[in-house]
Amino acid sequence: MSDAIITVRSFLAALARRDLDAAEEWLAPGFQLHVAGQRFNSLASFAAFSKPRQQRTKKNLDHWDYCRGPQGNDIVYARGTMEGEWNNGERFAGIYWIDRFQFHEGRITRLDIASDMAEFRPTLSE
Questions:
Q1: How many of the other CB atoms lie within 10 Å of CB of 84?
Q2: What pLDDT is attached to residue 119?
Q3: Cα–Cα distance between 111 and 26 in angstroms, integer?
Q4: CB-facing half-sphere around the CA of 47: CA atoms within 13 A
Q5: Contact 88/96 with Cβ under 8 angstroms?
Q6: pTM over 0.85
Q7: DSSP secondary structure letter of residue 19
Q8: Domain assignment present for 126
Q9: Can you tell me whether residue 87 is helix, strand or coil?
């Protein structure tokens, strides 16, 4: 198993524990997270963006793929399903997700998140 995959698994485990400080240890300076047409430069800003959408979310990691990018950097694709609870108390499960992690010198420089979350999310109250 590559070091990049081990890093992704450790990073996702820290996020599952809601330990943003531990997760940030894996991030490179200048880290960017892209999701739902938004860009975030920190996990805290992404958590603030997510707060009005769901109370909790757990990612179940089913598979990962590793490759070398065009500039020789590691790239890991992780995918699986999510479960959790919306802010209205309704539970959800089985929502597909895929994350693309890009690395430089062993640290995560970019994370692109795609999921079917919006297809299932209740309408946000104003």
A1: 16
A2: 83
A3: 12
A4: 12
A5: no
A6: yes
A7: -
A8: no
A9: coil
